[in-house]
């Protein structure tokens, strides 16, 4: 692998949009807004659409609007020690390694893999693994120094450094295995990052040539334009390894209500919400994709969070359901933060109960929330992140007070289960300068301080994932490069 510094002539422009808490004041504009969603979906890709539509809403607060209940600010907590050792224990590694604390260091030492790990331009243009607006290089971001750091865990000297990423090793570890990312657009970023890391940004032709689309095996249309597929499944023939992304922002089963509700049901709901076309969001049922394919997955990485807000609830016409019945208007679960906590707990329990503990084989991770960095406003009120700077030599190991360092919804959901945290909130929080900011979609006035430039921070999430996978499967894997290398000729 070698770093690339290729500049393209593509025009840079405004960034994407972050989700936001907002107040619905424009019920009468529903039809218009629906039309807007559809056209935005067409123009900008389906994930951005519900966010764009919020332009017409009134923002509820200007601060980083991760659902309030989702996170905790810098503070200590008695449960720390217990949960950290639980993580280490379930990771199966010989040492109790906590990869969540540490610092970013310049990746200029000889031992470190050269940064960036791949060329975003190659990955985007040559093989289409990477969505073009996420390659900041492609969008003329002038300063790419954010690519030049690696994450060093606090206890690296005790053998807890991250395993240097090596594509062949990665595929060998996952020989005859299936890895799936299920979640929102940040899961898509992690999936695309991994595809680029494995194929070195599309540079490794021989690996790339051996990738086949197996989407139909998982109920997906054959992928052509990755951004629009409900899911993507790629099979690496060399090692019989499958890597999947499936888009499910809530992780819950969503069911479009085709029929009018019964009179009794309607009485228990508010008038506006009882319309056909609403979506029943079953807080206690996992997305059917998980239900249908969970047994096939060897490694599963879940995430959620940024869509659990009232704006999304309105736009998507979600009706919360539990036990197959609508949640009543006065129920605590109507409060979105409660619904979110309840649903994550339920999803994680559902998954955990289906992990065969006797084989110690399947690995399920819940990735903690990826922080946003809008400053001086939110995504639609001029919030920016292009002036945030990062100075490695300051040795930042603790963020400023009041800054989000952990994801309590995730942490509470996994307690007592064998689902592991991929605890990346803190390390990502330190890297506000690495967001897309204004180097994303062109012709967009707002900055994207939610998604990350790729190559970038999600690469590190994958390095941590790789380290866990390496710990776990080192004995199980038929570890050699011979098959892979011979199949390349
Ligand atoms: C997640 O990481 C943060 C930052 O290192 C830490 O404060 C928190 O305790 C970690 N959570 C768990 C459950 O280990
Ligand atoms: C490929 O991997 C799958 C599991 O992911 C397994 O069921 C299948 O038998 C493997 N095929 C071969 C030829 O080993
Ligand atoms: C995608 O579809 C277009 C038009 O249908 C076709 O020209 C192109 O070859 C397809 N690309 C792939 C990778 O299948
Ligand atoms: C999480 O789910 C389990 C099983 O459904 C339940 O027993 C427990 O009370 C739930 N915990 C919370 C905090 O909701
Ligand atoms: C495996 O262990 C976890 C954690 O103790 C538990 O939640 C789960 O129900 C167990 N799975 C099975 C299939 O027994
Ligand atoms: C940062 O930490 C390294 C060792 O971890 C030390 O050598 C260096 O002097 C520190 N730099 C600053 C500016 O404190």
TrEMBL record:
Transmembrane segments: 30-58
Entry keyword Transmembrane: yes
Organism listed in the record: Sphagnum troendelagicum
Domain annotation Trichome birefringence-like N-terminal: ranges: 96-155
Ranges of residues in domain Trichome birefringence-like C-terminal: 162-467
Subcellular location per the Swiss-Prot or TrEMBL entry: Membrane
Keywords associated with the record: Membrane, Signal-anchor, Transmembrane, Transmembrane helix
Subcellular location, principal: membrane
Stated name of the protein: Trichome birefringence-like N-terminal domain-containing protein
């Amino acid at each position: 692998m070698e770093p690339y510094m290729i500049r393209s002539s593509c025009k840079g422009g405004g960034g994407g949009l972050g989700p936001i808490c907002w107040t619905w004041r424009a019920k009468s504009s529903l039809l218009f807004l629906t039309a807007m969603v559809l056209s935005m979906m067409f123009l900008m890709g389906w994930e951005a659409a519900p966010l764009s539509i919020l332009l017409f809403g009134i923002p509820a607060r200007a601060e980083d609007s991760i659902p309030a209940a989702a996170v905790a600010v810098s503070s200590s907590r008695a449960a720390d020690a217990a949960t950290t050792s639980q993580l280490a224990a379930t990771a199966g590694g010989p040492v109790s390694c906590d990869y969540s604390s540490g610092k970013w260091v310049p990746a200029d030492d000889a031992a470190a893999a050269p940064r960036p790990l791949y060329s975003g331009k190659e990955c985007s243009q040559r093989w289409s693994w990477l969505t073009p607006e996420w390659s900041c290089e492609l969008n003329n971001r002038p300063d790419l120094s954010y690519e030049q750091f690696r994450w060093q865990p606090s206890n690296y000297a005790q053998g807890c450094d991250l395993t240097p990423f090596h594509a062949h090793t990665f595929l060998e570890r996952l020989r005859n295995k299936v890895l799936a990312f299920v979640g929102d657009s940040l899961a898509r970023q992690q999936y695309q990052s991994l595809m680029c890391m494995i194929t070195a940004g599309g540079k490794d032709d021989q690996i790339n040539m051996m990738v086949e689309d197996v989407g139909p095996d998982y109920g997906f249309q054959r992928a052509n334009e990755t951004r629009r597929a409900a899911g993507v499944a790629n099979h690496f023939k060399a090692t019989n390894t499958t890597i999947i992304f499936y888009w499910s922002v809530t992780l819950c089963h969503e069911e479009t209500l085709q029929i009018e509700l019964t009179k009794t049901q309607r009485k228990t709901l508010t008038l506006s919400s009882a319309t056909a076309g609403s979506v029943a969001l079953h807080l206690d049922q996992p997305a059917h994709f998980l239900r249908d394919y969970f047994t096939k997955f060897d490694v599963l990485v879940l995430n959620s969070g940024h869509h659990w807000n009232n704006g999304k609830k309105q736009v998507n016409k979600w009706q919360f359901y539990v036990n197959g019945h609508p949640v009543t208007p006065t129920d605590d679960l109507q409060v979105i933060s409660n619904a979110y906590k309840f649903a994550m707990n339920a999803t994680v329990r559902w998954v955990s109960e289906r992990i065969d503990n006797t084989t110690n084989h399947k690995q399920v991770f819940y990735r903690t929330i990826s922080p946003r960095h809008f400053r001086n406003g939110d995504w639609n009120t001029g919030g920016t992140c292009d002036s945030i700077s990062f100075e490695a030599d300051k040795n930042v190991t603790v963020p400023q007070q009041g800054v989000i360092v952990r994801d309590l919804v995730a942490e509470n959901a996994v307690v007592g289960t064998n689902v592991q945290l991929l605890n990346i909130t803190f390390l990502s929080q330190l890297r506000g300068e690495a967001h897309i900011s204004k180097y994303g979609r062109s012709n967009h006035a707002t900055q994207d301080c939610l998604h990350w430039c790729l190559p970038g921070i999600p690469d590190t999430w994958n390095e941590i994932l790789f380290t866990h996978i390496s710990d776990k499967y080192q004995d199980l894997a038929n570890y050699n490069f011979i098959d892979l290398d011979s199949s390349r000729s």
